[in-house]
Structure formats: structure tokens, C-alpha cells
Amino acid sequence: MSLETRLLSCVQPWIDAPAWRVALSGGLDSSVLLHLLARLSHVQQLPPLSAIHIHHGLQAQADAWAEHCQQLCAGLGVPLEIVRVRVEGGASLERAAREARYAAFRERLGVDELLLTAQHLDDQAETLLFRLLRGAGVRGLAGMPPVRALGAGKLARPLLGVTRQELHSYASVHQLSWVEDPSNENLHYSRNYLRRRVMPVLTERWPQSASALGRTAMHLREAQLLLDERADEDLAQAASTAPFSWLTCPSLDMTVLSALSPARQRNTLRRWLDLLGTAMPDSDHWAGWDALRDAAVDAQPVWRLAGSELRRSGARVYWLSGDWCAEPPQPAAWDFVGGAQQLPGNGSLTLQGQGELPGLLQVRYRQGGERLVLAGRRQRDLKRLLNESGLPAFVRARLPLLWRGDELLAVANLPLLSDLTGSGLRLIWTPPGAAHDQAVLPPSQV
């Protein structure tokens, strides 16, 4: 079966996409992919085809590579967009370049458009070996998926079943030229070491090693799909209604999670964290979950992750990110003049209802010792009222309080505490992250 036929079979599910865009580096693999698609477009009705070249500016030849891509696309009659990105330095320049590249792709991919990249079977085999040597689990060993979401569209890898040698043969037959990145010869990079030193030895002893490793990745990907299905079932059980509907932090029922085996707990949490866009913790870091799960009921355990954290309160575990992970606002006071008012790092506040503002008002946070006069002129200690409400402890330092001079008038959002007595007004707080989407549930539950 020809490469064109195999490629067309792989991209058939997206034949009605608004546009196809090829990630073009100018190297062998992406040059062949673009050439194949351009040829197909002459004999098949395909979506509009264009290419994107990311100019990292990291090599002296970067401008020449962009010019080569321009000439290649001009010869094929394919529009090209050259995007210059800034790569931030760090421990891994390779990772930083990749993050900058995919950020540019996400920004430019329209709704339902398809980005096609040229990773092939040998790349998949190297990825599996690389992740195996790093101790990856099933998800990591499943390798690169053939398709995944990217921004408003999707990313597809239609050449994962094609070997590097097949691509090279195609390029030779069609007299294609391509650029060579000198960094691909640098054995300091682990992937280059695997490609140059390890894979040739394996192929000498087992000629079909790349194909075998590719099949292994496919089997593991299927196993991961089954694990995700099980996790989705467990998430649906654990994602019961939280007691405070206005609290936008995603949460799960600890009672349901604790009833699962430890392996199913980790599987469910991995799925949840993945849906929330949180980096997976490594094996040793899972001890943080054990400590959070087994903490005393009245404790306030925290499991800190990359860019987010889990907190337990009562019978629920909450996922916090963004402003929620910063220190609560320091004690301060803001004049409140009505309307929606932004609170620094803490969402916004407004008064709902019909009525006049009862004098000069200020917004403050708890400092301790506050007392509130309830309906019937009963004065109660605020700490006791919050304990009775069951409001999670991590929320209380952020909870806006409305004052008139030395008199506490209302506590935002809480029943009976948020009404300004006799005014017809109610204090409403929109916490940070209220626009967070509902990716806390598996797709079938959203």
C-alpha cells in the first residue's frame, strides 16, 4: 500500500475539518508529510492546506531554515506562516523550545482545525524507550497518541505507522531536499543518544524492534483507555454535589474515594488531575495523597502539586489553583460603594437586591474576635457561626465581611449571614476561578 493511501486512511476522520495545517520544521519528516498532503490535494477534495514554521532563533541557521520552508511551500503552492517565538532559558532548553512551539500552535489553531505533525514509528519507539527508562507508568508508556486536543482544534500524527526509512525512500524518489538540525547529532540529549547509539544495536539484533515497540505502545494506550473508563465511573460516584454551590473549587467526596483500593484511588485521582490540566505527581510524591487521606477529621492537610494543591475539608477533597494557592489577602479594608467590586486576588463582590446602602461601608477580612448581630438582635461569635456552617477552613480567611464602622453587617454568601438586616440587600461574593470550566468530570458527565 502506497504512503499516500496509508496517509489518506489516517486523516479520513478529519476530511470535513475547516482547515489542515502542517507543522513544518523543514526537516525530512515534515517535508515529506507536506509533500504527501500537497500531492493528495490534487486528486482528493481536502480541506484548505497550509503550513506553520516555528522560528525558535536558537541556531545560527534558523533564518536559512525559514527560507527553505518558504521555497518548499512556494513550489508546492501551499501558504506558509512563519512564527517567531521566544524560548525562555532553563534547565531544559529542549523542553522550553517545545513548550514555546506548542503554545504558538495553540494560539493559531482555529475551531475544529487540524494540526498535522510528522512524528513517525521510529519516534514512537524512541519515546517508549525514553519513558521506560524514566520509570513511566501506563499513561507515559502509551507513547504519543495519534490524535489529541490542541487549543480550539486537534493535533494528529498520521505517520506513526511509517518508519523513518520509508520517509527517506519517499524523499529520495521525489528528489526532496530538507534541512538538518546539527543539534540532532548532540548525544548529550537523551533522545539523540537512543536514536544514534541504542536503536541501531536493537535493530541489528531484532530488525523489527521499532514496529514491536510501536505495537507495545498501542497495547498500553488501549490499557490506559480502560483505566480511564474505570476512573470515569469512580469519578462519577465521587463527584457528588458539594455543600457550597458558589464555591467554584472542584471537589470530590472523600468517603467514596476512601472506599476504593489504593490503586483505584490513584487511578481516579490521576484521571481527575489530568482533566484539570495538572502535571502528574511522580511515584514518591504520592505519599502526599496518603497523608491527606489518612489525616484526622479535624486536621487541615495539604498536598502540594505542580501549580496546584489538594486540600481536605470534612468529607471532601478540593483542588485549588491560581489565586487560591497564593497566601490569603492580608488584613485590609476597602471602601464599598456598590456595584461589582474587584477584590485583589480574591474575585469580586456585589450587593444584590433592592435597597439603599446603609451608610459608609467597608470590606474587610477576618482577624479574629468578630461578632455578628443576627435577626432578632442576637449577637453571635463569627468563629462559632463559621464552624457551624461547615465552610472549609481554606475559604474562611478569604471570606469578605461588610462593615459599617465597628459594626459587622454581613458575611458574604452564607445563609442568614449575608443579608443586611432591614435593607433588602444581600452580600454576594464571586470567588477566584469562577470561570473554571467543568472539566472536573469525565466528558460523559459534563
From TrEMBL:
It holds the Pfam family TilS. ATP binds at residues 25-30. It is found in: Cytoplasm. It catalyses: cytidine(34) in tRNA(Ile2) + L-lysine + ATP = lysidine(34) in tRNA(Ile2) + AMP + diphosphate + H(+). Gene3D superfamilies: 1.20.59.20, HUPs. Its EC number is 6.3.4.19. InterPro entries: Lysidine-tRNA-synth_C, Rossmann-like_a/b/a_fold, TilS/TtcA_N, tRNA_Ile_lys_synt, tRNA_Ile_lys_synt_N, tRNA_Ile_lys_synt_subst-bd. GO terms for cellular component: cytoplasm. Residues 361-429 form the Lysidine-tRNA(Ile) synthetase C-terminal domain. One of its GO terms (molecular function) is ATP binding. HAMAP family: tRNA_Ile_lys_synt (MF_01161). Ligates lysine onto the cytidine present at position 34 of the AUA codon-specific tRNA(Ile) that contains the anticodon CAU, in an ATP-dependent manner. Cytidine is converted to lysidine, thus changing the amino acid specificity of the tRNA from methionine to isoleucine. This is tRNA(Ile)-lysidine synthase.
